Amino acid sequence: MTQPIIELHQVTKRYADNTILSNINLTLESGKFYTLLGPSGCGKTTILRTIAGFTDATTGDILFAGKRINDVPANKRNVNTVFQDYALFPHMTVAENVAFGLTLQKRPKSEIAERVNQALRLVQLADYGDRAISALSGGQQQRIAIARAIVMQPQVLLLDEPLSALDAKLRRQMQYELRDLQQRLGITFLFVTHDQEEALAMSDEIFVMNQGEILQSGSPVDIYDEPINHFVADFIGESNILPGKMIDDFQVAFGGHQFECADAGIPVNEPVEIVIRPEDLTLTDLAHAKLTVTINTQLFRGDYYEIAATDGLGNDWLIHSVNPAEDGDQIGLTFRPQDLHVMRFGEKEAEFDARLETYEGTEDDRFDET
Amino acid sequence: MKQKFTQLYLIVVFIILYAPIVFLIAYSFSQGDTMTNYHGFTWRHYQTLFSDSRMLAIVANTLLVALLSSLIATLIGTLGALGINRTTKRVTRESLLTLNNVLMVSPDVIIGASFLIFFTMLKIPLGFGSVLLSHIAFEIPIVVLMVLPRLREMSASMLDAAQDLGATTRQLLSQVIIPFISPGIFAGFFMALTYSLDDFAVTFFVTGNGFSTLSVEIYSRARQGINLEINALSGVMFLFSLLLVGGYYWIQQVSQKRKQRKRGAIS
Amino acid sequence: MIALTKRKTWLYFIPYGLWLALFVIAPVALIIYQSFFDLGHHFTLANYSTYFASATYLKMTVNSVWYALLITLFTGLISYPTAYFLHQLKHRQFWLLLVILPTWINILLKAYAFIGIFSQAGLANQFLTFIGIGPQQILFTNASFIFVATYIQIPFMILPIFNALDDLNPAFINASRDLGASNWQTFRRVIFPLTLPGVKAGVQAVFIPSLSLFMLTRLIGGNKVITLGTAIEEHFLTTMNWGMGSTIGVVLIIAMIIVMTLTGDQKPKGGAPR
């Protein structure tokens, strides 16, 4: 395994009685796109600031390429930040902003000019060097903020919710561009966001955070398909979360019935929660139904109908269907065993991973025919 | 109808505001010796003024005190504003601001009288030194008040960004903070200058016998009655104020234009 | 920001700190200290007992406050409509500049101008003669003192009211109209309450100086009106009774604190309603 570029070992941050970060461990490898994802106030920006050097960790170590950098001031760290409000210097032109860090390093004028031009080309604003910051649109300011950081050739680029001030269309475009930029530069990006779609779309690996803790880390697909607990399942994507009970390995009961599932290694009769994504539910006639629900309302979302329904036990269901349903109708729902995901209460990420080890492989054989 | 009333009201107010000034300057060109009955045009009073060596020395003193005190007050006030802006505790900041504003709201006589006691106790001789110190003292708070809002406008992330790009504390100050707040510093200097030129009461208390500024001189001459040399002086001072205001707005316009030129490049 | 900026930077704060100690705290302390000493430099409470026992001093104080109130009232009555109308003009910033410009003329020159205007054969009496009233003694009367003081203070009242009007979100006015309020109702129920902080700032800027305008009482009022400021100046520079002067100074400081408290912004601190 190669040397990780950034490591956090048991980092905590406290202000008086408030714990902002508790026991954060994380490892970032070179050249990957990482995302810290969580609701506002979960501590994700604080992690970014401890890595950048704007905030001290109360305890724990921050390592850069294996060396402890807790006591290295921000201006001596080889990481750069793109700020949420861009933080461009209003009294300087675009080029002066981008050149700022290089000027402080007293680089030769020709080198500065060339690197500034190169950085501006990278963000597709090559001709904008002479403009005032106030003359740029939000999207352009965003790009300049990125150019100003990457011109420093950092090994790690920290991005603090950089897209949050942009409109939806521009944000989607910037997602592609950021991903593209990261791959071209080949450096590590650590991206902070509260927008799960953004995180799923761009990241190699996501850290889901809540209340100062990292709850789960993994690839976007892993986290979407196998959320570790109620919070993660609810925060990422839309989901139906129902109380249930483990009957046996690969057998779970909920909604008054017993179903085949893809999870094992949980003690028999343990109360659990079951996650089913709305797009995994299929409308069917009552004869083929695994569950029967009554349609309450539906909204047309363009590429699908979002249907709200209630089952006989009073559980609410959210269904994404290509075909519309009729309000008030009784209708059948069906799903595949691997569409169910069983979550244990209070299970930690390490325990979850260990349990998965015990039955993985068998799972793939079982449902091959479907 | 309503429009008419509004206009009439404003016209009357402006006439009242400017009548005394126009009256004063008009009579500086009158051949008589009193401010009654205009006696025809003359430059005589201006000639008297410009050959009055005592008056010219006082003008020089006044300008020297104003410039010197404003420069020093701007320096100290800016540093003070930086300090106040750095305080994190709300209580500390509020009490510093309250103390800062004491001299802003105190009546001139209180400032003058208390400074007089202060200088006498420290055995500082009354004259140029005491006047200069007093002017610096009452100019500092206005500089702080002009600089602070600019400092507050400065976002914390901008300072983080500068550090992130490698700026040391010194570079942070010289390349980011000072350029950013320079409009505030400039306005502070300017306000300090006008406070100094305008002050009468404080100077009157702490000036002693040997030293005089324009305000004090005008007061003592006005108590002796009408003297059209003072009218001529007010003409000169009005022109000077106009130039100062004009210059101030011109500089603001230029910096605005510079911004706009850059902005204009977009289309 | 961490360690990087914490160190040594407090050195920059020293000149300002010295100023606070020597020119803000010390002088106030000294004037209070001095008020407890008599002419022979002995500690005494006599200054205060003299002040509160003497009809002359008390009458002077009441007079001074009364004149300051009148000046503030007249200034406000003239300034609010001026600021309001001014704010409706197209080039309002330019007109505001014209209001501020006279404040750049030395106050003594303006007072001096009125000596000319109000003199026996001056402009004002020529006008009175012209309309048939005949010449009057105008200079050295209480009325002339109030007139000139009001004249001098008007811009200082207009400015904060204008700024308050400028800060007012026009959407509030539209909302009020939308809800059926007439122009007058909109003014009384929306505009005036929301610009009250400007009026209070104006009162602060006018009332306190009006208590202490000693040069106007000398030049225009002809020593008929004795304000607190005049009394202080008299004691410090003429009779050299600094103890008594300081005592009146302390009274003036207390008056100032009362005015500041009454007109201070009553934003509920900590959200507790009062």
From TrEMBL, chain B:
What CDD domains does the database record attribute to this sequence?
Answer: TM_PBP2
A GO CC annotation given for this chain: plasma membrane
Every ABC transmembrane type-1 domain range: 59-249
Protein family (similarity comment):
Belongs to the binding-protein-dependent transport system permease family. CysTW subfamily.
> What is the name of the protein in this document?
ABC transporter, permease protein
Keywords tagged on the record = Cell membrane, Membrane, Transmembrane, Transmembrane helix, Transport
Q: How the protein sits in the membrane? A: Multi-pass membrane protein
> What transmembrane ranges does the database entry give?
7-29, 55-84, 96-122, 128-151, 172-194, 232-251
Look up and give the organism this protein is from: Levilactobacillus brevis ATCC 14869 = DSM 20054
Localization annotation: Cell membrane
Q: Which GO terms describe its biological process?
A: transmembrane transport
Q: Which Pfam families match?
A: BPD_transp_1
UniProtKB/TrEMBL annotation, chain C:
Extract the CDD domains matched here.
TM_PBP2
- Which residues does the UniProt record annotate as the domain ABC transmembrane type-1? 61-263
Keywords attached to this entry: Cell membrane, Membrane, Transmembrane, Transmembrane helix, Transport
Q: Spell out the InterPro entries in the cross-references.
A: MetI-like, MetI-like_sf
Is Transport found in the keyword set? yes
Query: What residue ranges are annotated as transmembrane?
Result: 12-33, 65-87, 93-118, 139-162, 242-264
Q: Where does it localize?
A: Cell membrane
Flavoprotein: is it a keyword of this entry?
no
Q: Give a Gene Ontology cellular component term annotated to this protein.
A: plasma membrane
Chief localisation class: membrane
SUPFAM superfamilies in the record: MetI-like (SSF161098)
Gene3D superfamilies found in the cross-reference section: MetI-like
**What protein family is recorded?**
Belongs to the binding-protein-dependent transport system permease family. CysTW subfamily.
- Designated name of the protein: ABC transporter, permease protein
